[in-house]
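We treat protein structure as text, and this decision shapes the records that our systems exchange. Below, we set out a record of this kind in full and without editing:

***
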Amino acid sequence: MHLAVIRGRDRVVASLILAYPESVREVTDIGETILHLTVKSENGCKMLRGLLEGFKYKEMLNWKDEEGNTVLHLAAVRKQHEVIKLLLLQPELDVNAVNSNKLKALDILLKGPKQSNDQEIVEMLHLASTPKADNQELPEQSQADETVIDVDTKGKYSTSKMDTANSLEWLGELRSGLMVMAVLIATVTFEVALNPPGGLWQDGVPAGSNITRLMNSHRPGKAIAGETSPNSLTWFMVWDSIGFLASMSIIVVLTSPSKLKGNTTRWKYIRLMMWVVIASVHMVFLYGVQITTASNIFKRAVIAPFVFFYGVVGLLALRSGWSLLTEWCDLFKELWTKKNR
């Protein structure tokens, strides 16, 4: 994990976190967290932004290495201004944390070599570390500049609260969308189960009748496809039932009283059921069209497009999987080489 972060292998890191979420809490021999290592990464800002999206362990923002440096200290030492701006958007960040030398990130910037764009970061850190009542103690500057900086910085810090609100709003919209989709699919699968493709017999021998007809033994209300295409109808009903039950289970999970935010198990289950629903809809469509369409037309007009579509999707999936496998192989080679030195 740590080597993948330093090398900037964001896809490998994402797959590792997905497989082993607790691995993000592991530290190096000198106490550096995965967040510390993003600052040393080849694409640190991109890596850090990806980690902070949906990051559950925000307290790690203030974890210190053996020298007492937080990730903010390390970003200040390396003059990584974009990383500092990104960190300042996190409400859990302790801007006033000091390292073993009793230095804040602001002190490190002020004492270190100066760069042309240091002033903006210094002012942002100063505002973040100073109570609002003391904001008048900013370095001297024109009233106009002060107004611009104050408005701009407050806007940036309010972004974190807005992001949280937007995240909750997005979560509610996602839940509503999933509910609508699940109800719609449950309704459709229920309807086609009662009215299968090919229609129902309208005539025939009524149930319970003693009349025997050798040439017309079907009963009213039974599926015509049950006699004309029994195998296809059987599989049609199997996949329709799977889709109905999967969509109903999504409805049950979404309407249960426990929290959705942060409950990864429930979201994983919903995602799994979504794939089941998608697969069942595909199969219901195929068997339904097979029942109502001539064999030669079915093969040309339905099977051929499906084969082409999934062939393209399969190639894209293989390409993506091969790229990820290559990254994993490179990472394991680096680990093996480092271990055997």
Notes: DSSP finds 13 helices and no strands in the chain. Residues 143-194 form the longest helix (52 residues). The domain at 2-139 is CATH 1.25.40.20 (Serine Threonine Protein Phosphatase 5, Tetratricopeptide repeat).
